[in-house]
Amino acid sequence: MKVDTIQHKGRPAEILLVEDNHGDVLLTKKAFKQAKIANNITVAKNGEEAMQILRREGVYADAHLPDLILLDLNLPKKSGKDVLQEIKSDDLLKHIPVVVLTSSRAELDVVKTYDLHANSYIIKPVNLQKFSEIVASIERYWFTIVVLTDEQ
Questions:
Q1: How far, in Å, CA of 39 to CA of 108, rounded?
Q2: What is this structure's pTM?
Q3: Eight-class DSSP state of 151
Q4: Based on C-alpha coordinates, what's the Rg of the chain?
Q5: Which has the closest alpha carbon to 151: 85, 65, 56, 69?
Q6: DSSP secondary-structure letter at 97?
Q7: Residue 38: how many CB atoms within 10 A of its CB?
Q8: Could you tell me the domains of the chain?
Q9: How many angstroms from the chain centroid is the CA of residue 60?
Q10: Spatial separation of the C-alpha atoms in residues 97 and 29, rounded to whole Å
Q11: What order of strands is seen across the sheet that includes strand 39-44?
């Protein structure tokens, strides 16, 4: 197992974006396109699809495990909290950092997601410039500073 920052691994960062809002998907992709680190973004439109991708089931058999998961809480079919709980309870997935990226400002959501071992909780700004700044911060922190494993 090799440990290093994504920046030094010489490959694109693999990101799983779990988001059902098409506008937020487009904003996130646009912000990551401006990123300094090459990246591949896979989008899951609901919680069930996210778990299929992570477990490499069916049409996702060849999917890469992500280096980072960006998870909305309010999802159809399976909530973001349920997805987070499944990820952090699975020995093959629990090492993947999960950043909750949501519009919820509810203190209960913040507390619950940290209780479920989320790595970060970020409230989505409505301003495009602020959103881009947040994505740049996520990229800088998770891909140029943090050391991640290659447990794929």
A1: 32
A2: 0.90
A3: -
A4: 14
A5: 65
A6: -
A7: 13
A8: 15-146 (3.40.50.2300)
A9: 17
A10: 19
A11: 39-44, 13-18, 68-71, 98-102, 120-123
